[in-house]
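Title: Prediction job returns without error message
Component: structure pipeline
Severity: low
Priority: P3
Assignee: unassigned

Description:
Job completed but the reporter wants confirmation the result is attached to the right record. Sequence as submitted:
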Amino acid sequence: MPAKEIDLLKEKLISMRQDILQCLQHLDDGWQYLAEKDSEFEEEAQKADLSELYAQLDEREKEEIEAIDHALEKIGSLQYGKCEGCSKQIPLPRLQVLPATRFCLACSAKAEEKERIPPAFP
């Protein structure tokens, strides 16, 4: 893969990481608001629902940052763009859409299929 393309993808990854960190800061502000707000019983139920949503978003954002950091490490070790399933080069259009992806389309589909099908019990 040309160095220019890798540099563009690296910039995109860094930008994505900064956006996620800003989003996490907004979530943190939301947590503080929920913690400070005194409310009635109905508002407490809404607060619990929001609290659960924030926790889910927070976990998803952390996973995205980990994936971005992993991709940036691979750029540093000159392994970026290689599928972790089959070791083939991930096509550039896929990397442009999903710069933190670890798998080519075929290996990604296989991994998703394994997650969907429960293991057979003897």
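Comment from assignee: result matches the submitted record. Residues 41-76 form the longest helix (36 residues).
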